[in-house]
Amino acid sequence: MSQAEALAAPPALYTPHAAPRATDAAVELRLKSLHYGDFRAVRDVNLTIRRNAVTALIGPSGCGKSTVLRCINRMNDLVRGFRLDGEVRFRGRDIYDKAVDPVAVRRAIGMVFQQPNPFAMSVARNVTFGLKLNGVRDHLNERVEQALRGAALWDEVKDHLNKSALSLSGGQQQRLCIARAIATQPEVILMDEPCSAIDPIATLKIEELMTALKAKYTIVIVTHNLQQARRVADDTAFLYVDRSAGGRTGYLVESGPTAEFFANPREKPTQDYVAGAFG
Questions:
Q1: pLDDT tens, 13-52?
Q2: Burial of 270 (0-12, 13-18, 19+ CB in 10 A)
Q3: Domain that holds residue 33
Q4: CATH of the domain at 255
């Protein structure tokens, strides 16, 4: 294998590797219910996430957006009492199948969190951390540069690779976290409110970066910012809260191409939310 091929080769999800289906769908969610213990957090989410597109999950606080997002790479498995009734299909297979390794899922479906969370180590070691964890030891310098260029950060840090990542600005730290995520060559990147803790100028850079990254990756973003969804998302899905019978369960109201979604929402809760009647 050539050096270029070695750098480009993504890790396998599981062995034997399931052949991907001929479809534009990167991920298919067929969720009947998501529980934390006795609490039913989410119900009835049927959503297809298109390959090489940005999909925004929007809705009021408490509607389950982050819970749904974390189902896509099995991060909710780490929460005690969580259980899922339904399927999340990726590469043609349900990732909740008992034969699928959740750690391998998280290599193929990376995540960027709300607060920038660089490790207290150098910029370069932040990028190589996940690679080394996955047993990658070759071409690390080239991989660091490739990931930092992919996160539009290389020109700002190339002379400071051995400095602490904690010395970077908030926006730079978030882009470093994106570089760390893409270093392992995932297919899908999940972003949970990635701009909520950074300033407007840094937010613009992250939004521009999302637009550029979708040429290589599928991106799913949770955001409370409707204007951000309008700017960056190709598709938008709206979740709302069912308070019937004294409960509080999120559910998917509707989804569709972003321009059509905002111009002509079909359901009354969506119409009210888009119009700013509640938030």
A1: 433 333 334 458 999 999 999 999 999 999 999 999 999 9
A2: buried
A3: 3-274
A4: 3.40.50.300
